[in-house]
Amino acid sequence: MGTPGEAAGADRATQAGYTRKTAAIATSTAADYRVEIRAGRHPLAADEPKSVGGADTAPSPIGLLLSALGSCTAITLRMYAGRKGWPLEGVRVHLAYEEGPGGAHRITRRIDLLGTLGEAQRARLLDIAERTPVTRAVREGTPVVAAGRPGGHGAAQTLTPKS
């Protein structure tokens, strides 16, 4: 059962025509950076590397973002190939988060398709990879809309993509 703030957020999302696909709760109570995460019924954790003051006990938030992108890519391609009956034996997704000059950043992704696929099948799968749900969320800059009370517990905050 969620908190009143979560329920209010769900009500607003439903009223605005959105359908909630998944929810996660992140809790940090210790003096260090480790965060316990609950994604649906699955426990996860995040931390920062020792080089920035963390204990390096779990993936960093950027590591989790890359994991989400890579797993969504692999799952989507397996689903698509499976529906088509294509001989895709596996998918390997290599990802890197890169920071550049002036605060620029990018994610590079290389996809290895394993199996005896034809060139047209490979091309189609790489095209599908450009439209996975997480790829679109990252590329399109999904707004983060908070549900809570200003200035206190559950403080409201809205984050939108930079233009």
Automatic annotation (TrEMBL):
InterPro entries: KH_dom-like_a/b, OsmC/Ohr_fam, OsmC/Ohrsf. Pfam families: OsmC. Coiled coil: none annotated. SUPFAM superfamilies: OsmC-like. PANTHER family: OSMC-LIKE PROTEIN, PROTEIN INVOLVED IN RIMO-MEDIATED BETA-METHYLTHIOLATION OF RIBOSOMAL PROTEIN S12 YCAO. This is OsmC family peroxiredoxin.
